[in-house]
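Tutorial, part two.
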Amino acid sequence: MSLIRKTAAELGAMIAAGEVSAAEVAEAHLDRMAEVEPKVKAFLHVDRETTLEQARAVDARLKAGEKLGPLAGVPIAHKDIFTTRDMPTTAASKILQGWRPPYDATVTRRLREAGLVILGKTNLDEFAMGSSTENSAYQLTHNPWDLTRVPGGSSGGSSAAVAAYEAPLSTGTDTGGSIRQPAAVTGIVGMKPTYGGSSRYGLIAFASSLDTPGPFARNVLDAALLQEAFSGHDPMDSTSIDAPVPSVVEAARNGDVAGMRIGVVREFAGGDGVQPGVLARFNEAVQLLESLGAKVVEVSCPSFASALPAYYLIAPSECSSNLARFDAMRYGLRVGDDGTRSAEEVMALTRAAGFGPEVKRRIMLGTYALSSGYYDAYYGQAQKVRTVIAREFEAAYQQVDVLISPTTPTTAFPIGERADDPMAMYLADLYTIPSNLTGNAAISVPCGLADEDGLPVGLQIMAPVLGDDRCYRVGAAVEKALESRWGGPLLKEAPSL
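Running the prediction step on this input gives:
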C-alpha cells in the first residue's frame, strides 16, 4: 500500500519506528497534490520546499531523541483561517490577500509542537461564511466524488484535500456546521468539539460565540488523535475551558455502544426536504446501532426548527462586529489612498472592493439586527431561542447519552445550483446548527452512499458539553460495523480521480 493510503496513525507509527522518514511521507503527499490538485483545487497556498524543510526538521528532532506525539511527521492540510507566521493567511478574502501574520494561531503552534507537517493552506468560503466553498474570492474547490459538485463549506478545501488523499488529516472550523457538513458530503469524518475545548486564538473570527476549530480525517481514530494534538486549555483564549476532559483517543479505540442510550431527533428524522437516499442510510445506521446493543429511542426537540433563523441573526450580528476591524488602516487591502480622500472614504472603498457578496450580505444583516430599535426584536429574540434550544438539549441528555440525525438533508449539490438562492444554501446546515448555538460536541461519520447519486451520506452524533468522547465512541462503533459490512473503508478512492 502506498504511503498516501495509510492512515495517520499508521504513518505516525512508521515514522516513529524509523521505517520511513517524515520527508518521504511529505514528498509522497506533495506528489499526490501535484497529480490531482488541478482538478480538486483544495489549496490556496502550497510551498513544496517549505513543507520539506518542516519534515526534515521533524526527522532531526526524532533522531535527536525528542519525544513527540503519535502524529509526529504526519502531513496535514491547514484551513486558511488560522494564522501562520510563515505562510499567507487570507480567510479566502481579497481584503487579506497576501497577508503574512506575525504570529501563529494556538492550533497552528500546537500542530508544530506535536511534529505535524503543514502541507499548505486550504480554500474556504470567505471568512468561513458559506456551505459550499463557492464564496471563496480565489477559486472553486471541487468534490473528489464528483467534480461537478461542491465539497461543502465553509471548510470545503480541507474536506476535499482529505477525501482526495492529498492529506491524511486537515483542520477546519465549525460555526454552523462548517466541519460536519463538508465531511458528510465528501465521505470523511469531521468533528466539532465542545465550544471552548479548542482554542480560537489566532483564528480569524466570524462569530465568536460559535466558531470552533476541529479535525478532519478519513477515520474516527485519526480524528481523535488530531483533536487531542491541538485541543486543551489556552490562557490566550478567554472562552477556553479549563477543565479535565475524557480521552477521545481512548473512546475512539473502544467503540463499544452496548448499553448506551441513543436518541433519534424526531424533527430531523424525515419530512420535507430530506433526500430519500439520505434517509435510507440514516435508518440503516439506527438499525445497526440497535444490533450492536444500544437502546434507541425517539426524542422530540421542537425548538430545533427555530435554530436556523436564530443562527442567521446571531452569527451575522457577531460577524458585523468582528469584521469592523478590516478598516484599511492597519493591515490588508487599502483602496483609494491617493492623498486626497479621507480615512472614511478609503475605508468605504476598501471594504466595497475587499469583501465578497455573501460577506457583505451578512454584515448588513447583522448591522440591521443590532441597530437601535431592532436589537430587542431580532438579536434579543434570537438569543432567547438559543436558550430554549439549550434547555431542550439538556432535557434530552437526561434521557439519552447521545442524539443522532442525518448530518445534512441532501448529498453534495451541483456547483452553482444554490449560488443565487441564499435560503436554499443556508438549509444545508439545518441539522448542524443547534449544536453550535449551545456549544455541544458533534461529529459526522460516513454511513454509506445514497441510492440516487452514489454520493456519501453522513451520520451526525451529538453529545453534551465535554461529551466529545461519546461522539467518538459511537462513531467508532458505526465505522467498525460498516467497514466489516463493506469489506473496508467507504473512501477507498474518490471516483472522479
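The first strand starts at residue 43 and ends at 46. In part three we will examine how such features are distributed along the chain.
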